[in-house]
């Protein structure tokens, strides 16, 4: 393996992958690019009408690469440091080193920066020159760009996207300032070391672009630009720290997943900045014809969101605000298909209207609407944040989804149950099926949550919500004791990806351990071995739940065929096809660690735990699990669980907690007080004997 020093969070190689799609990405909440690429993307900036909408290509001045023409016996290395959120390229020649760094600044989110440092290693006095190779041209196939006056030594262009997503809709504006890039950099004969800084600021307004560029210049002049980025990134990593004692490859995969997924999140201190969702390939990808064109799927709500919720509830809230902001588009989708309420699009961009290029998915893969609502339910159970629902539009979304499901069901006189007909389940090898087990189960969960929330908000509960939740059909084979994927499914039929196994987790659909096992046994051998990466993680979680540790590990191991070297970039399918920088697969992988190894389950009454470690894993430390306004440090070994509330919010006040074991033992969780007990199942709940 190409990683030096055994540091699981630093990935170093002496050569780049042959496929440029597998180069690492540098991203923050607003800007993203792949290293050495001549385009970048800005969040929410799409061009193209309806099904042609895609991330607009913004020309990137920072796709430059160093070269040392004529240098003999030079050595190169390329490093992604996940601790500092920085990519670097180093040329080591006799007498000097040249190092280029590239990063998306994590507190100045409209700024990307690159630096080149040449350092003399001997006593020579001759000039040292390196070349900067760049394909940058200040034009775009997606933006009408015009030059403006230079600003503080930076060049300036601005313009709008060419085509709005919906007729008459807005066309986002982009303003970009950048430091001119010379073709050569020379360290003078009397100089020992010199650093050149190259900044690029991109924003939706001229004022913001100039403000960010000026702030970057000031920090660069003080020698603290990179340090300020590292400080902001380190604070995010520290707040979302997950440490594992286990095989090196597993720890490397963990740190790679955390780097790429956390890079996509909004910073903690920018609640007023709208967030534009997370696409399967992240912000760095999504040009026309690539990585699903930067659209947002259930990948965000089902596969990435649960991890983000436990580690960074503020970012989870921003994701939900994206769905609230696109609610009107979802209402239009439902109306156009002849239904009430709101139907979230299979593929979403800026408006919430359906932008999937292939009609069948947008028309039939309707489980997305329940997936969105499940994220809202998980958030509510974990935070009890009433403001989101009472003041910020959350209740209107919940009610609209409930109305959609009621209008989408039909009554079967024969079975005396409600049916949902003509759908595509998560298993996309089948379409136009009736009563997809997953779709119907997630619809049932939507209606149950809507009823619970209405009561909590002291609102009337429509009788049909609970009636339909009780009477919706979820196919079940009484003889074989398993859930057929849909009406008429024959055992042995090939399945594309995780589908029925999702009933056990994350849906937590009521079933016995026998049925849970039968579902896993039925679908594991018939699931496409070259299907998408997130699938095997859900089989792993299922086997961990049943304490089949070797079977769980064998499923988790399958994920490694989707992780490419040397920078741990995931591909959607093990043959390299599909999306790259596949955050969906990374989200599934993280759920194995955060929910599988711990046994965490989010319920209305508490956060359950029931740890299970495959062989070779001895300890898991989660530095900041968020629950009901508390930050919990949780350390789990095979022998012991240790918990401590390290922080509790003041406004609104955090709920006092206690840990309860299945044996009945109770342990108050006071702030700053560590508790420990032998590893056993239990739950964390609001303490009944104490009030905030």
From TrEMBL:
Transmembrane segments: none
GO molecular function, one term: protein-glucosylgalactosylhydroxylysine glucosidase activity
Reactions listed under catalytic activity: (5R)-5-O-[alpha-D-glucosyl-(1->2)-beta-D-galactosyl]-5-hydroxy-L-lysyl-[collagen] + H2O = (5R)-5-O-(beta-D-galactosyl)-5-hydroxy-L-lysyl-[collagen] + D-glucose
Residue ranges, annotated region (Disordered): 669-692
Domain Glycoside hydrolase family 65 C-terminal: 601-647
GO biological process: carbohydrate metabolic process
Keywords: Glycosidase, Hydrolase
InterPro entries in the record: 6-hairpin_glycosidase_sf (IPR008928), 6hp_glycosidase-like_sf (IPR012341), Glyco_hydro_65_C (IPR005194), Glyco_hydro_65_M (IPR005195)
Pfam family, one: Glyco_hydro_65m
Boundaries of every Glycoside hydrolase family 65 central catalytic domain copy: 284-490
Keyword Hydrolase: yes
Family, similarity comment: Belongs to the glycosyl hydrolase 65 family.
Function of the molecule: Catalyzes the hydrolysis of glucose from the disaccharide unit linked to hydroxylysine residues of collagen and collagen-like proteins.
Protein's name according to its UniProt entry: Protein-glucosylgalactosylhydroxylysine glucosidase
Species the sequence originates in: Pheucticus melanocephalus (Black-headed grosbeak)
